[in-house]
Amino acid sequence: MNLPTWIARRYFFSRKKRSFISWLSIFSMLGVGVGTMALIVVLSVFNGMEELNRQIFKSFEADMTVSPVEGKRFLASSALLTKLRQVPGVALVTPVAQDNALARYADRQTVVRVKGVDDNYVQRAQMDSAMIDGRLLLRENGINYAVVADGVRSDLSISPVDILTPLEVLYPQSGQAFSVLNPDAFNREAMTVAGVFFIEATNYGNLVLVPLRVARTLFSYQPDEVTGLEIQLRPGTDEAAAKQALQAVVNTTLTVQSRDDLNQNLYRTIRIEKLVVALTLAFIILIASINIFFSLSMLVVEKRDDIKILFAMGATTGLVRRIFLTEGAIIALTGAITGLVLGISICLIQQSYGLITMGTTSSIVDAYPVRLELTDVVMTAILVILVTILTSWFPAQRAAESVNR
């Protein structure tokens, strides 16, 4: 152990009766520790929320989506579908036609988002875990069925057990003057409700799944006309490489987007909130570290005679500066390491055992989602080191120059 470290340890871990300066150093250490622990925990919670949203979207949305650059529909020829299916890693290509429409059930009505899907949609098996009533059935024995979101069921009081009351969907005809009194102004399709699903996302509460042919008839689409193509990849496929290969197949009027691309606004919002909270907690750590500045400044005044003796014994200004820099490092790093250990432990315990629950039975997860990332730990440690240097430098420099006063 070198001399500056030994002297700094003696100052901090003195066995004599603790003075006000010693207690201030301890409070500074605790403040840095609590701030560091809070920063680790909060950042991990935001990481968990981002991962939870990915899991929610993965249970319903496709891996890749082909959509028009302009407009909302395009022609998906059989040749295009064949080329897309031949791309390495592609498992299923599902043509989709969706738009807003009016839904009626018995004496109730509401605006819904109708999504017509191809027959292979059921093969994706994504909706199995989201079904809460009935079954995922769109067509059987020549009969068309609809599967509705739980929000639609609540608005219309739908019962999948009631096979006698159909769900009627209305969509304005193109070229017709809009009038609620004109029965010919709407295309109409009636289907039996086969099941109800629930997805914990606000933009899926008004969704109605119907067979693709029903949606095309309802929207007056041509046989090959769709609003998008949903592509499911095989497990283990490189999404970035698959996206690039798919984009090379489609023309410039179409764009290929991953699941994250479709929800980038939500992820951007989460990251912005994470950044704001991180800056707030970093500011709190800085305020706690200012106590280190005051404690070191008062320690310099208290140890002025010791500093003069060190200079008389041949100590250099650099050695004296390192003593007080080391003293600040001991205070801050002890608190930081304690905070890091506690924060990491809390996150690992929450990940493994879920001690802190969501407090509601309607949530998709029982406990608060937490995901610990190494980058957050490293950035927090770097932040504490920088704050320590910043708050310790000036008192250490003043101690080094005090001999000349």
TrEMBL record:
The keyword Transmembrane applies. GO terms for biological process: lipoprotein localization to outer membrane. Residues 281-400 form the ABC3 transporter permease C-terminal domain. Keywords: Cell membrane, Membrane, Transmembrane, Transmembrane helix. Belongs to the ABC-4 integral membrane protein family. LolC/E subfamily. It is found in: Cell membrane. The chain crosses the membrane at residues 20-46, 275-301, 307-324, 331-353, 377-396. Residues 25-248 form the MacB-like periplasmic core domain. This is ABC transporter permease. The keyword Cell membrane applies. Its main location: membrane. It is a multi-pass membrane protein. It comes from the Bacteria. It holds the Pfam family MacB_PCD. GO terms for cellular component: plasma membrane protein complex.
